[in-house]
Write a structure and sequence with these properties.
Length: 676
Amino acid sequence: MDAVDGLASSPVSILGSAKRALVGRKLRSTQLGETLLPKRIALPVFASDALSSVAYAPDEIFLTLSMGGLSAYVFNWKIGVAVAIVMLTVVASYRQNVHAYPSGGGDYEVATVNLGPTAGLTVGSALLVDYVLTVAVSISSGVQNATSALPFLTGHEATAAAVLILALMAMNLRGTKESGTAFAVPTYLFMVAILAMGVYGYFRYLTGDLPQAGSAKYDIAAEGQYEQGLTGIAMVFLLARAFSSGCAALTGVEAISNGVPAFRKPKSHNAATTLLLLGTIAITMLMSIIVLADLMDLRYVEDPATQLLLDGRPVGEGHDQDTVIAQLAQSLYGTTPLFYFTIACTGVILVLAANTAFNGFPVLGSILARDGFLPRQLDTRGDRLAFSNGIIVLALAAIALVYAFDAEVTKLIQLYIVGVFVSFNLSQLGMIKHWTRHLATETDPEQRRRMLRSRAVNAFGLAMTATVLVIVLVTKFLAGAWIAILAMVLVFVLMRSIKRHYAMVAAELEIDDSDVTLPSRVHAIVLVSKLHKPTVRALAYARVSKPSALEAITVELDPEETAALMRRWDELGIPVPLKVVASPYRELVRPVIKYVKQVRKASPRDIVMVYIPEYVVGRWWEQALHNQTALRLKGRLLFMPGVMVTSVPYQLHSAAAAKERLAAGRPAPGDVRRGR
């Protein structure tokens, strides 16, 4: 039988070198402590999503309110305040979470422990979907902003987004600390750019020198149902929809509770401090943009060609509408370097916002895998001690989503925030039950007061997040939120199925009385295609194992070749009987399988051991020159109960040379330390 060939040394070395260049040197498991994050790095790692949402949350608020005409813009800052209140509440609630559950399970652990496995799995499925959406929305929004300064990207947004996702994936494969260090500077520069723009804008407002936005000269045409003004149910629905869109600013807050293990000690304290910094900075930036846009009479609509009116007439298809931040920066700075600096920082942070998901998704995936709800490969750390498989899965899922929606933020945003608010609600409910359970046994008055205060915070948080979730479902369900809900249901069902599979496998593998009964005999069969060194080695290996019965079989494809093989067998005096298996249709695999089944049927208590000689080659192209009969045979035999398969490798010269070259390239112990 021909061999299943080995890999060549040269491709292995090339691939290995490329992997080292991409990922970096391997880290020992004992070096995990070196990858932990200080607060200054943890903030950009885990908070970039929430911080970056100030780049598109104001856009969504203005865009939604524009459907009611210019008069609806009076509610901009009020909706901003409502979003800020919800964010403060959620931040305060999650500060309770990181202290109570610092293991990194986050919302999933809170819901599982306090509400049961079904609630925990619901949270897990919601967060997994939301993390994928976070990457897709953030990257797409970053590309959309970049088109303001790089017009050549127009029409190629999906491809550009896919390239950026792959770049983020590569960076995160190098480890959490490395990616955080690389992304820290752009994140802090974005904070400086937005806060500086706000300070400069308010200074000019106080001095009476604040310019109007370039779009201030336009009027806005209200959509049909709002042409008679904002009244009754229509007004409530519009404001609710604008509020739900603005709540996209809350995504990413939960990532810190999932990433507590990545913080330096004291982990819970550092995570809680980072949460407070996140909430304070994000709210300040969000409100500064919304209020400044109101003061500068900025206009931002969904369909500029028909909604923007100049002298009572639509501006038409030729009008190019920039994002809210781009309009503010251009009006305040003109075309000076500060304008390009602000746009560049905004585009970069929107891309880096996806990094929060690249840290949250793999950790959550590893916990779900550890509990048996996802493939166990997701709980494996890579060379850099990151959960590499989870990082790759997230990147591929996000790329698929980007291409499915052509990187259009307006479409993707409708799917957004449903998952995160599902997890918010179940997490708050779980924390209320957590404090209630502990209050039942706690007798210390001081501790009881602290627990009561914490439960009140979580109760208020539940009321706020439940209200937002209802609004989101009502206003966005038909607009696309149903897709996210369907995805969560499918992920939930998939994880339940995986759990059921692992449980069934574990049950089958349990040892019972029948397993301690030894087989009566071992019947060994050596497969022979030609009489050469690999065959002789397989025969010797089979004989030395001392089976109860030993025979060699060959499949007759050509009578003359079979006759020559038999003569040579007799000439060498090989002390193993050789049987010829007929194959009238010139098949090889089927006759062998049939023969093995006959042996098993004749002695059901016997173990059949099949020895397969295999070549091992050292060059990748040599594999194409040898058939893969051995591989196909093993694939079929492995499904037969009572049959074991043993591969007997024979290394050809190319394999030996490859092994020597590979060994020669490795430094001896101490060589690196000595500078060799």
